[in-house]
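Troubleshooting entry. Yesterday's outputs looked truncated, so today I'm pasting the complete records for two proteins to confirm everything comes through intact. If either block looks cut off, that's the bug. Protein one:
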Amino acid sequence: MKISDMNWRQVEDYLQTDNRAILPLGSTEQHGGLSLSVDSILSEKIALDAAEPLGIPVFPVLSYGLTPYFLAFPGSVSLRVETYVRMMRDILDCLKRQGFRRILLVNGHGGNQPAASLAIEWMADNPDVAVKFHNWWNAPRTFARVQEIDPVASHASWMENFPWTRLPGVIQPAQQKPMVDAARLRVMGPEAVRAYLGDGNYGGYYERPDAEMLSIWSVAVEETRALIEGPWA
């Protein structure tokens, strides 16, 4: 359930019987012909779909992350690492203060990896709280399903093209785009990244049948729900 659909008294009542919470982590960045909010849309929806039958509150998605390489694409917004880590620490401190002791971070953006390192460091200072960091899209079962469907999958390709990340009136190319050279990409500045990527897709088909996408989603929801259920330290 969304924390935005609760008031503070309801949260206080919830904490009398459970201390789990979920925080989705996203980004605002180019995704080719898909929404700039792909990572935020997917992480929040995965969290909500997984948590709903368990009655666990899901906090609003943190919709800005670390994406400096895409700054030449209009609409992409990146925080500095220092800013992001401090913000994550503040959020975790607040959740602990209020009584949450088992926190799942559902991450939808690869660039947010510093949040995982921060969580480990933060737990060392707060041994009475358990924090799990979950990259939903490349978790073992979910990524295995992606690979079964099509091993050529990447940023802004078919693997992020769900009914809820598409934009009305935007028609995706039918062909398969050759994969980019990831090693070359990692040493480029934002303008060079844009020139090299073109439309923003890293490689692969732009879309696949909805039945295949929904099968991935089903696995991802189940895998995320299993993390919520435990075990917890």
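Protein two, checking that the full record survives here as well:
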Amino acid sequence: MTPPDPQQVAEIAGRLSKLQAAPIAFADAAVFVQEHHRHHTPPAGHKFSIAAVAADRLVGVVIVGRPVSRHRDDGLTLEVTRLCTVGHPNACSFLYGAAARAAFALGYARIGTYTLKSEPGTSLKAAGWRLIGETPGRSWSVPSRPRADKHPIEPKLLWEAA
């Protein structure tokens, strides 16, 4: 038996690990986030969600909805409310790019997302998004509506593709 050709093995491995976008129901994306996200639970809803699939395996999801901030909710802006992967190479930047292309194809003018200030934003930069601002970290809990903080309250960075 002859050993396999290394170039042929590399080509097959490349095809198997190549990322593909696929539609995914919100309920399925929410389950993926619940199982794999390191510090957030799934959001309450979405406009659309996209899956990243490699070798017929779900390796990530992006959930896109209306902006959380009422100041950004102008009818022409969407927000990536959750992005979650299992660590597959390039899956984050792949999903950020897919989300932006889908938002623009639907007629939206811009799409944004927030990251923790402690996160480098490498995937966003790779997908062509730009840093546009910083928000202070704070609790959602107020005296008139007390809430338990289930997320990090450190400062956040606002990124946008337009």
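Both blocks look complete. Sanity check on protein two: The CA atoms of residues 27 and 45 lie 9 Å apart.
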